[in-house]
Each structure stands twice: as C-alpha cells, then as structure tokens.
Write a structure and sequence with these properties.
Belongs to the class-I aminoacyl-tRNA synthetase family. It holds the Pfam family tRNA-synt_1d. By secondary structure, the protein is an alpha/beta fold. The protein is built from 20 helices and 13 strands. The chain has helices at about 5-20, 45-55, 60-70, 95-105, 135-155, 170-180, 190-205, 205-220, 225-250, 270-275, 315-330, 345-355, 390-410, 415-435, 445-450, 460-475, 490-500, 500-510, 515-535, 545-565; strands at about 35, 45, 80, 85-90, 120-125, 155-160, 280-285, 285-290, 305-310, 335-340, 365-370, 375, 445. The structure holds arginine. The site of arginine has 10 residues, from helix 11.
Length: about 575
C-alpha cells in the first residue's frame, strides 16, 4: 500500500509546483516541510525564504507563486502565506480520516519499506572472552540490537556479527592458568573476572609462568591441537555466559552471529601482503605500519595503524582490517557499521582511512556508531563497590527486582504473570534508559529515574499501552478498517501523530538514532492521554463515534507495541 507519510505527500506537491512555477528542480527531501507548532496549522513549508535568496526574488513572491501552482487534490486547504514567506498547511479533514482509516488494514501501520535495500554488516555487542560483560557492553548490545531491528523493518538486509575478543596474547596466560588449575566439577570456571585476575596476578609475579604463557601464545597461533582445545573451553564457557545475558535482555544475537577475532586469523597474512603490495606500509621500529593521511598526535607526529607487530604477531587493528575486507569482498556488504564506544572513534577513523586507501571501501559506506559512557550517581563511570566495573548480569537481576516492587504496588496479577511483567518492566527500563537519550552523550544510571511512571520512560509507555488494552478489552472486537472520524481537535491531533510514525522511524533509522523513536512514542502516548481526557471513548455519544474512537485507541496501541518492539522492549497487555 501507499505510504502515509504526510510530509512526503506535501513535499512532492510543493516540489511539483516549484518546477511548474519557477522551472527549478528541488529534491523532495529538501522541500523543508515541518510539523507546525502554530495553533490551527498542521505543517509548514520554509522553502520560499532560501529559494527566494537563491533566485534573487522576494520570498513572499516566491511563496505566492508556489501557492498559485500547487495541485492539492483535496489533501490540504490552499496554504496561507505567513510572515517572511512561510506556507501554512491545514490538512483536509476528509483526507486525514481516509488516511488514518487505511492504517487499520496495514500491518506496517503505513510505513513503506525502503525502495533501495542495502546489505549491512553490523558489528555490535562484541565482548571479550574470559571477562564478564560489563555495562559498557550493555550499551553496544542494546543500541546495536535496536538498530538491527530498525534496519530490518526498513527492509534492509542485516548481517549481524559479534566481534568477540577471543584471540591474542592474554590467552597464553589464561590457557596456562586453566591447565594449572582445572576447575573442579561440572560447574566450569564460574567467575570469569576472578579467573582472569588470578591469571594476571600469576603472570605479573611468576617469571616461569609468564614464560610458559608466552610460549603458549605461539602454540595457539600455530594451531597446536591441545592448546586449541583448552582455548575452545574458555570460549565456550564465555559464550554460555554471554548468551545468558542476551536471553535476559532479549538481544537477537545467536551463536551463528559469532565472528570472533580468531575467525579472521587465516586472513591476516593476506591483508598484510596486499597492503604491502599496494605500497601502503612502512617499517617502523620493526613493525609493519600504515600511516593514514591526516592523523597526528599532539606533537605533530604521524600516527600508525599497526598491521604486524615486530614479533610477527597481529593485534586489534590488523584483525579489524581483515574484518572490513572480509565483509565487503567476501560477503558483499554495502555498509559496515560498528556499534562501539566513543573512545574508539580514532581507531575506526584510521581503520576506514586505510581501508579506503586499499580500495576495500569503493561504493561502501563505513560508519562508527559511537556512544558515551554509563555514569553512576557520582557522575563517574559506573563501578561496583569493589572498584570493578559493574557486572551486567547482576545489574539486570537488580532491575527485575526493583521493577517487581514497582508493579506489585497495585496489581491483581497471578504470580507467573507478575514475574513476566516485572521482567518486561525491569529489562525494558534498563534498555529504554540506554536508548532514549542521544547515544553520543554519557548518561547517569539511576533506578528512580528509569523506573518512573511519569515522563519519557518505558514504564510510562508500558502503562499507557496496558491502559489502552484494558479499554479495548471492554470495547469488544471491530473491523480492522473501522472508519475514523476527526471532529474534535484532540482526535485530529492524535491522528496527525499516528501518521507521523513513518517519519519518526525514518529519522531513527537513517541517523542510527533510536532516541528519535523513543521521543515519538512518548509524544504519541501523551497525545493519546489528552485525547482520552477530552473525548469519551466507550461512552461516546453515537455508535459511529464510539467505533471511531475505539479505532484510534487500537491504532495507538499498535503503534506503541510496534515501536517498542523495534527498540527490543516488550509491552505486556496487563500491568
Ligand atoms: N572487544 C572490543 C571491546 O570490548 C570491541 C570490539 C568492537 N568491534 C571491532 N570490530 N573492533 O572493546
């Protein structure tokens, strides 16, 4: 079906009018159509001002010409020209009614899939083996998963890959430690952080152990079978732990998406050869390096991307070079996206520069989707009392416990449903707190704020949804495309909001900015509650009005469920 985006519809008509009136070509995205904040006006077009300047004509005259040539076909009233040359659009009631009614029969709520699907390799979560995941990995997992869902819904093909830190020098000491002290019984290694730290302590204090560890790295990298088996044990143990967190969080990554650093090991040699053959490398202190243009430290020295260390080993950067080449050349990705904390911004900028120089990014979009830190109440990067970075699993348990207290306050639900609801609310709150702010900014983690029932929180949205569902349960079933009538301003405001879903999704998807969807869902819930205050639904004056208002409630509920779902957040029917 035809997309319902109102701004697109207006943009198309304005662009056509400009073509006819002034013989100027404008792309519809540049038509500067925006939701109006003025009372009684739905949308405005701000193009006449810049266009007037460009053509050397008074903007009001340009605006008048646009109006004279507009073909509106019943979409809107002929716009009024305001101020310096704004066009103020008021949509026709009948057109709006017909558009909103049509949403009822559409699974996608009027949001058309993209006409230009891409094949997008998306690196997210990417924790390190033999270390517990911490809140830093929470953000990558939650933001990355929301982006994956948004891109898929938009009609793109997503190739998720979990770039596990499962290779490199620390594995020498970890394997030696595991061989020295095999874990007792079936319970496995247990606390991975403690295990890692014990190995580290031994490495730092015991010279013989350190030597054995270094030899073990060589064995690992040369493919020694016994070594690989122990290494695999460590990887499996960690993967079990990661999967547990993903399951708790509702993250869609599976074992099939694991492409750890070790996966790229066989490709590393070729990568160096190719960069050398291209004349891109230099020897620096015995290491093979590429110095991409434009990267310097404060002293003005050029910064290297180390491709092969002087001992012949490969590091993080080399693996990322192989990763980029693999997904573009072997897997045909048109986009490379990396959801990784902002401190790695320079690494990715240098990586992309080298890949571009090597010709691996021709026609490929590469982007680092950075994010800020999670801060504790003291404004510092969040830590537990022992001074370690907070463990993710503990944090999530805590979220569910806290949420149980919130939902228990006024609930007639049975024990099972109560537990499921507490989980949806608690996990939802943690995820929403992570998603609802601009991702590049740090944010402060506070239970009270994230579990608040008022304001832009998932709890507010979940309650709004459950309240609507309880109205709908009383209303009874009605046809999917029950006709919507828009007599009252509050009905009209809700209809306009519902028709903006596609715009909100597009903004959230193209900017990898889930917070734009959060803001939209919050506005939708607030607009619904105003409508509900002003317009009786079940007790509407006529059967037609009741049907229409129930239909508006249905569409609001469906928008909240679909929107929250794209953020990876559940919306229980009852709260
Ligand atoms: N394992 C890394 C870390 O915990 C993140 C990896 C991100 N992905 C990548 N391709 N470099 O910091």
């Amino acid at each position: 079906m035809q997309a319902t985006e109102v701004s697109e519809e207006l943009a198309r008509r304005v662009v056509d009018a400009i073509g006819r009136a002034l013989d100027v070509e404008i792309a519809p995205e540049d038509a500067l159509i925006a939701v109006s904040t003025r009372e009684g006006v739905d949308y405005q077009c701000n193009l006449a001002m810049s266009l007037g300047k460009r053509l050397g004509r008074p903007p009001r005259e340009v605006a008048g010409l646009i109006v004279a040539h507009l073909e509106l076909d019943g979409v809107a009233e002929p716009p009024e020209v305001a101020g310096p040359g704004f066009l103020n659009f008021v949509l026709r009631k009948e057109w709006l009614e017909q558009r909103v009614t049509a949403l009822g029969g559409d699974d996608r709520l009027g949001v058309a899939p993209t006409a230009a699907p891409r094949r997008i390799a998306l690196d997210y979560s990417s924790p390190n083996v033999a270390k517990e995941m911490h809140v830093g990995h929470l953000r990558s997992s939650v933001i990355g998963d929301a982006i994956a869902r948004l891109l898929r819904f938009a009609g793109h093909e997503v190739l998720p890959h979990n770039h596990l830190g499962d290779w490199g020098t620390p594995f020498g000491m970890l394997i030696e430690h595991l061989l020295d002290e095999p874990p007792a019984g079936r319970s496995g290694i247990g606390d991975l952080n403690a295990f890692y730290q014990a190995a580290r302590r031994k490495f730092d204090s015991d010279e013989a152990f350190a030597t054995r560890s270094r030899e073990r790295v060589v064995k690992l990298q040369s493919g020694d079978a016994e070594t690989l088996a122990v290494w695999q044990e460590l990887v499996d143990e960690s993967t079990r732990h990661f999967n547990e967190v993903y399951r708790l969080l509702g993250i869609t990554l599976t074992d099939a998406d694991v492409y750890g650093e070790s996966f790229y090991n066989p490709y590393l040699g070729k990568v160096v050869d190719e960069l050398e053959a291209d004349g891109l490398t230099e020897l620096s202190d015995g290491a093979v390096c590429v110095f991409p243009q434009g990267f310097h430290n404060r002293e003005g020295d050029r910064l290297p991307l180390i491709v092969r260390k002087r001992d012949g080993g490969y590091g993080y950067a080399a693996t990322d070079l192989a990763t980029a080449k693999y997904w573009t050349t072997e897997r045909g990705a048109t986009d490379l996206l990396y959801v990784v904390g902002t401190p790695q911004a320079q690494h990715f900028a240098m990586l992309f520069a080298v890949c571009r120089a090597a010709g691996w990014l021709d026609g490929v979009r590469a982007e680092h989707i950075g994010f800020g830190s999670v801060l504790g109440a003291d404004g510092k990067v969040m830590r537990t009392r022992a001074g370690e970075t907070t463990k993710l699993a503990d944090l999530l348990e805590e979220a569910v416990t806290q949420a149980a207290a919130v939902v228990a306050e006024r609930s007639e639900l049975g024990a099972d449903e109560q537990r499921a609801v507490a989980r949806a609310v608690g996990i939802g709150a943690v995820k929403y707190a992570d998603l609802s702010g601009d991702r590049e900014r740090d944010y402060v983690f506070t239970w009270d704020r994230m579990l608040a029932k008022e304001g832009n929180t998932s709890v507010y949205l979940q309650y709004a949804h459950a309240r609507i569902e309880s109205i709908l349960a009383k209303a009874g079933a009605q046809p999917a495309e029950a006709p919507v009538l828009l007599g009252e301003p509050a009905e009209r405001a809700l209809a306009l909001t519902l028709l903006r879903f596609g715009e909100a999704l597009r903004a959230a998807t193209s900017g990898y900015a889930p917070h734009k969807l959060c803001t939209y869902l919050y506005e939708t819930a607030v607009t619904f509650s105003r409508f509900y205050e002003q317009c009786p639904v079940l007790a509407a004056a006529t059967p037609e009005l009741r049907t229409s208002r129930v239909q508006l409630a249905t569409l609001t509920s469906r928008t909240l469920v679909l929107g929250l779902g794209l953020l990876g957040i559940e919306a229980p029917r009852r709260l």
